[in-house]
Amino acid sequence: MKNVFGGIEAGGTKFVCVIANGPEEILFEERFPTTTPTETIQKSISFFEKHIKEDHLNLLSLGIGTFGPIDLHPTSGTYGIITSTPKPGWAYADIVKPFQKAFHIPIAFDTDVNAAAIGEGVWGVAQGLENFLYFTIGTGVGGGAIINGKPLHGLVHPEMGHIRLSQNTLIDAYPGKCPFHGTCFEGLTAGPAIEDRWGKAAFLLSQDHPAWDLEADYIAQAMSNFICTLSPQKIILGGGVMQQIHLFPLIRKKTLTYLNGYVQSASMLENIDNFIVPPGLGNQAGMLGAIAMAKNLVE
Ligand code: ADP
Ligand code: ZN
Predict the structure, then answer these.
(1) Do the Cβ atoms of 240 and 14 come closer than 8 Å?
(2) Which domains, and CATH codes, for the chain?
(3) Claim: this prediction has a pTM higher than 0.90
(4) I want to staple 143 with a disulfide (CB 3.0 to 4.6 A). Which of 62, 107, 160, 164 is the partner?
């Protein structure tokens, strides 16, 4: 029997299940669309059961990084559930318990973005850092924070995609896409907001389209806010929208402009190209982060 770890990246659009020991040893991986909680969780359980049996695996522990909001406080009565999501059918869905029942192994549970941050800390571009942030800018915007070496939870967990930004309505009068806040960070910058504002899918907009300068401006406002509040040593930007890698130089420049020389750190000011960066693990940050969380439980 081979010892292995399980990981689940539970997204609002798709679930990724993986059996691995690290980036160099990904044994099995399966993705399927997120449908109802019952069906999606059962598919995930079946994936692990099948490989445990057929491939003679000893699943030591499981890590789950999920969309939210979630309850991740172990002493709470609702630990392990998704809470107030507007995603149909998923409000108050119990994610952890069905896996506990099926496998009787230790389970780590965190937000998808904290999981991705953990993955980048263990195997990606944030190795050796104690304080850093991971953002996804995709269907929504979410941020995970590693602070003093640990994922930040706090009251519930950070919702860094929902901070308020300053909108110059003379240039951009778009009312915003967030169902809760209109023009918050997510409401202004997520993929669906870009598409809605410009009437064209984000990936179809040419590099010289005015959408990108505006996008970089809002992201830079958010970055300067988080640099001032959390003092990260690095910020990682992932997600579908950040496939537009020409955004990186724009965001870096505008972030420094917004900070206006106030935050004095050579590792940011003189090395901004290594300070605001794409994920080292690419689109595997979340699933590998889930594996790292699982490993942390037993090693
Ligand atoms: P999810 O957020 O569901 O995990 P993604 O991170 O891939 O998935 O985000 C999907 C969003 O990102 C969509 O709104 C899509 O329009 C946008 N997107 C995906 N690929 C690109 C691209 N190459 N350029 C710009 N936007 C993109
Ligand atoms: Zn919002």
Answers:
(1) no
(2) 2-115+283-298 (3.30.420.40), 128-278 (3.30.420.40)
(3) yes
(4) 160
